[in-house]
Amino acid sequence: MMIRVGIVEDVTFMAEMLKDNLTQNKQITVVWHAFNGEEAIEILSKDSDIEVLLMDINMPKLNGIEAAKIINKSWPSIKIVMSTVYDDEENIFSAILAGACGYLVKDKSYESWQESVLEAVDGGAPMSAGIAKKVLQLLRHSKPVLQAEVENFGITIREKEILENLVLGYTYDQIAVTLFISKGTVRKHIEKIYRKLSVNNKIEAIQKAQQNKIV
Fold first, then answer.
1. 31 phi and psi, to 5 degrees?
2. pTM: predicted TM-score of the whole model, two decimal places
3. If you average pLDDT over residues 137-148, what whole number do you get?
């Protein structure tokens, strides 16, 4: 399957650099480039046939985080990966809450951006190493849920097993092998988990499951 990617970046040379790098992989094609969140939403309203959106944060008219909120709500199947120079906790947390599944800092080796796109499509959460550490810290220090507020949200035993594998950082393929089920079945279970927990991505699912002592 050819992976269709959209790039939202207000710096032209950066967008061209990303495009040139990504298209070296024969599985990836960059179908369009927008200069800001507003333009990206306009393009998606006409043609939303993409799998991954690489999006900057600091852009004119509509920034990446606000755009991610709208895009995630209107086109939830699109994997949003933030591509930015910002590595502070506020932007990281805001991006995750907005529905981003990944967060890459622009000083990341460009050879690994192709891998990040493939990882996002495969159900992973691509992140620069330093960002991953900060996300773990945010999860560890998140406000605990009172015992009276704890719920299991109707999570089944199989869904709990899948959540436990997500906590370990396993991809859809790895979970399928571990649980002796197909990758498609893993996807269906995760979609059900997201609906039951009322979350939009893997990180939110893990956080809510841990807060409610499901895993």
1. -95, -25
2. 0.67
3. 53
